[in-house]
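The following block was generated as part of the benchmark described in Methods. Ligand: zinc ion.
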Amino acid sequence: MDQVISVAINYPLYQTFKYLVPNSLGKVSIGGRVLVPFGKKTIVGIVIKKEKYVSKDKIDYKLKSAINLIDDYGLVSTEIMKICTWASDYYEYPIGQVLFGALPSQIKQGIALSNIKIFKSEYKELSKNELKINLNHEQKMVFRDISKNIDTFSTSLIHGVTGSGKTEVYINLAKEVTSKNKQVLIIVPEINLTPQTITRFEMYIDKRIQSYHSGHTTKDKVTTWINARDGKLDIIIGTRSSIFLPFKSLGLIIIDEEHDASLKQQEKFKYHARDLSIMRAKNLNIPIVIGSATPSFESLHNVSLEKFKKYNLTKRYHKVDLPKITLVDLNKDLPEHGISKYLKDAIIKNLDNNKQSLLYIGRRGYSHALTCLECGWISRCKICESFMTYHKNQKILKCHHCGNYQSVSINPGTCDKCNLVPVGFGTQRIEDKIKELFPRARVLRIDSDAISSLKKLEDFIDKAKNNQVDILVGTQMIVKGHDFPSVTLVGIINIDSGLYNLDFRGLEKTAQLITQVAGRSGRKNEKGQVIIQTRRPEHPLLNTLLTDGYEKFALENLNERKKANLPPYSHLSLLKMSSIKKSTTFKFLEELKGCYSEQKSIFLLGPAEAPLSKKNNMFVHQLIIGSKNRTMLRKITKEIRQYIIQKKPYNMKWSIDVDPVDLY
Ligand code: ADP
Ligand code: ZN
């Protein structure tokens, strides 16, 4: 008898395909790869279901035969199959692409495992001289309580102020789990954070520790994939995609900086690594620990629903008080090229005392845009309609959305000779100004233009740590989790765009940013100072945050969200559609919305122009689908996805984002 199987393939298609496996090919295994004809091509597929057996005379003549079974066992384990199937369904993304996305490229290509050369892992030789950590009282309490239930599923949220030593708690938990020969997965939001995290774990745990992120070569990635699967690695520290790695016996998942938006993939398959990790931990019946100094509102809400258990680390390990925060009213203290007198004086004082200062600016490049004071010309991207950032060093204007760039012409506007001035501030402009104001200071800029590799970032951070720098200027890149022991002054150049963001998460993100940036100040020896420049010093958010702290602020804001029926009190999916002609997508979305006018259990917002209303020459519209009821939202989101596929809208692109983190 021959067997019929269902196969998932690596195409943007929602259906799976049936093939016949002649008896002669051998035993079929779910999760095994199979070579199949597809159109005129031969491609690799993954068996996701065994259908019925058929006898030769009953075979549907249209059913094509598989060519070869690549694996005689489930290369994609039952466990990975389960999480991928769930994710495909939850995020409305094709199962084939989810499954193939979880595999290293050699395996995707169908190379037999026995033909894949495994390289030596880069982890250091085990040395048997690990240091012992002495946890302080608070750390001990958290560690003990979590380790009491280390063999079953539970979600613990560690809310620890910056510098409280969350990492040391993670290390102790990992030690406990690996001592029982189980594996640990630690997810950090940025590649940049992997080296320092590895270093800290290696100091205290004498186990095979390996990083996993997009910076590794394909050979290294497949090696890690195989070694993790075979139980030849004990600890993996990786970015969000490591949630799809196979493990021989995973015993614990840790998510650091769980509030960070980078844990959500924004392109194509829009999954959230924290949420998937919780699912995976649940499937495996193992604990998951998530941590942050500024927990996401979603997680705090889950604490109040008693889905997560919350632990607090309220004190900094090095017993340094949290920094003093001062608001500078830019309406009164008029800034000179972005820097108020108050901030300037504080920097001078710090320089005099040989202390380090750090200045945070939300944007790289020189300025937000260039404009002509005479004719009003402003630099816009022809492809996206967004502003083009001025990069002074290269003398170019660059669109940070599509990468389009052009050189700055002398006369872009309608004047005889344009009087061009920069609008807004980027890191380069602040760097220039700082160098001009303090010619003898050693200034170092850290942003994605200055940092081309992990190695370079490490060099820069070492420089800062070894006191070879007086003033650090940078973007998010210096904020996220890095420890600069000598920084005692932090300046936030401008917070206002975050206070008046259209996105309902604008305030949450701004509060997280302020708290995280502030946390870079005075970490080791002495109390630091934070100066926030703003034109809105009376803003209620700033005041609650500064007087009552992050948690109080969060609870107040959660109350507002509840009244407005916004997440986490409701759930959203975001549908985006784009086309060359502006009216087509709008009309399509209006029609779609019309189909649901009777539906009371959901709400539809839009259609409206997307915040980036034109991207790569396509006009983008969006429709927000929301409901208090998660099951209902999933049902309608699926229906809408099926509606679009069935209508096959001509020349239109679309995407669905379930639980979007950026709405506007
Ligand atoms: P967080 O991640 O919570 O901001 P860290 O884990 O970076 O804090 O800890 C802050 C500092 O305190 C680090 O320099 C760390 O090495 C130190 N530290 C924290 N806990 C301990 C401990 N138990 N023993 C020694 N050093 C510790
Ligand atoms: Zn553009």
